[in-house]
DNA sequence: CGTGATGACG
């Protein structure tokens, strides 16, 4: 900042402000930002476009886009830089319509868009192919493709929207390319799963930096070519945190925790990302002791949980039923005041719901100020999965009343809710309504729900015919749910029709074997049982035992079929007996096992 | 431009 920016009468206070201003554009501490802002306001410097743009950028970082807009509106003559900053602020806070609105205001005023405007605008609409194409056509007309800045971001946007061919086309037609162009197209090919094409481009590159190598590492890791990745990793000239993290992540995803840990321990420098990868890796495999102890070590190393880490670890906890670790993350997030992002709250809702604490999931949901579609979907689904079908449908109704437009995920939850209550007619209605009213093309999950509810209701032939006639290839879950229904309704005929299909999809699944043997045993067809056993060629004895981990009062318990090893096995079995008697009294007929 | 990142059928 130059000194002549301030009116002379404020010269004495300006030095103090100078220091604040130099880092203002990346101030993420809301309280400090408000202090500086009021200081700026007192000095009447808020009308200066340069200072205003720093305030806008900081308000964006503090997740306060409306304050950013307020700052903008007080500047009498906004520059293109100021417009760009606001467009970026809205983009960063996932407010694409406001981003576009600002662009529109820019067009209406006499300020010209520049090569910074379009990349920000594109970021805002990541995922919407149609909008990207519109912006693309627009920048062609304005001649912005002669530089590399705009086309590079077009490559990235197309690629992230799943249009790798369009991304490659932009690259092919570029008159000049820089390193970022090459890197972007390699990343685009990797994202699309074309690792060999990516390698082809990589080999042609006039020069490579660490980013180029890292993209290739990731590509090989994603398709499971660990040796090729490791080979590149050992040959690359410079390895940074991202290179190491990519390797650790790759081995974690493969389930090779030893290799992942070995590389993790060898890393010369670690930031919060590799810690997160390793902790989530352990948590995702259900290794809560390892995950928890790494969590401690991370803090001892002086690193704190950030929002990415919280979301990532919570998701892993939800996947593996790690309520204890999930709660720990919750408390840490609260202490670090990370609670206020929608994404973390959503991850918490799902974690508590999947780990069995529906009440806590509900508390989080009700306490949220800004619920988004994911929040509603998670809660609708949570209620359905916990057996509260009616409450789930009520929540869906409330959602519609509040004007939230449901999506594909919503209707999976809604159809699950119908299953819980046995509402076949309702389920059919929702299945039609989602297509007619919301233009949602049913996915395999929707067919799965509908087929499941038909089967449970005894409409086995209809369920079977729907599986056969639907426009998607049925998967193991679909056949499994019909098979389950066959067992429940003692229907050997339809069961036999689908055994072959199911076994070819999941040859070694113990659950399927159990169901099939139950059906044959119930019908007294012991030769059929033998046949089913033979069909399961790769049958894995260890998988026969279905086990389940639960957490009670912070102790983990492993329960398995035919298991008497648990310290309180007698009490558990007595309780099960009592429950069995209780439900029999209520008219439930126990299955023959 | 590259690493962790919320929701779906048994």
UniProtKB/TrEMBL annotation:
Pfam families: E_motif, PPR, PPR_2. GO terms for biological process: RNA modification; system development. The keyword Repeat applies. It comes from the Eukaryota. GO terms for molecular function: RNA binding. PPR repeats lie at residues 147-177, 178-212, 240-274, 341-371, 372-406. Keywords: Repeat. InterPro entries: E_motif (IPR046848), PPR_At4g14850-like_plant (IPR046960), PPR_rpt (IPR002885), TPR-like_helical_dom_sf (IPR011990). This is Pentatricopeptide repeat-containing protein. It comes from Dendrobium catenatum.
